[in-house]
Design brief:
This protein is an all-alpha fold and 119 residues long. The chain contains 6 helices and no strands. The longest helix is centred in the middle third of the chain and has 21 residues.
Length: 119
């Protein structure tokens, strides 16, 4: 194995992506697939158009449909996990929550982490 791959494997902690997405959905929208944010975020996970487009070519109009939004949100969260590891940031539920919503107050990532740990 190359040192880069070894580094990524050790830096990417075993965070359950599905459990974390569940916690993000709870905090972002209260599990509301039809939620619309103040800045145009859409769906249960309150994804932005740019975040959505960074991992799929599926129309952003589908962000309100859970069958589309969940796999797209999962792909985006996996990308964030990789990006954190690339920057040598320890990957935890809290650091991923901060990366998901970087402009939110610290209480946001604390709430996501608490829900994640309760699951």
């Amino acid at each position: 194995m190359t040192p880069v791959i070894e580094h990524h494997q050790s830096a990417i902690a075993p965070v359950s992506i599905d459990r974390l997405l569940d916690a993000i959905g709870a905090v972002e929208s209260g599990y509301n697939d039809k939620a619309v944010g103040a800045k145009g975020e859409r769906g249960m996970y309150q994804m932005t158009r740019d975040a959505w487009a960074s991992v799929t070519r599926i129309s952003f109009d589908k962000a309100f449909i859970h069958a589309y939004s969940m796999p797209v949100a999962r792909a985006y969260l996996l990308r964030l996990r990789w990006d954190l590891a690339e920057r040598h940031v320890t990957v935890t539920a809290r650091s991923l929550a901060r990366a998901w919503n970087p402009h939110a107050p610290p209480e946001y990532s604390q709430r996501v982490e608490a829900l994640y740990n309760d699951k």
